[in-house]
Amino acid sequence: MNADPKESSTRASPRSLRELFWFFSLLALQGxxxxxxxxxxxxxxxxxxxxxxxxxAEWSVAHVLPGPNIVNLGVMLGERYFGVRGALAxxxxxxxxxxxxxxxxxxxxxxxxxxPAVAAALKGVAVAVAALIAATACKLxxxxxxHPAGLPFCAVAAAATLxxxxxxxxxxxxxxxxxxxxxxxxTWVKLRQG
Length: 194
Description:
single chain, mainly alpha
């Protein structure tokens, strides 16, 4: 999803492959349990590489593609700024340091995983991650007011998704095809009308 060329030229962007690599390395090191909240803050608020609307559009595409969301986003942004080399630099940044850390943690968990303090710490981290995701969703709500389908439709689609996943425990592919298919269809209709 390439941005408008006029808007891209006036926005900040990574200056080199090295900067892109280290940005995604640091992003990956901050993302315990998911990086959406951190990616939004870093890409939109701190670096200004994307607007909120661009982030929401890119994240939506990254979310429905196979594979980890942040890797998909890294590929899209790296390719946007530096072509294939940028996509590879972003993916390398996302995977290199976390791979080393995960291997070390796997070794440590094998040795200490049965300790009650370790289990309690992991439960505490899960609460913090849930709060970060909720906070990011609240920050992205204003961008939905400009969605072609309208804010009421977006709210109904979000509520339907939440009910389907949390209450009815439907499998994610079914929810994506069902609610996502309706949302795509309705957005297409609204775009054709406008």
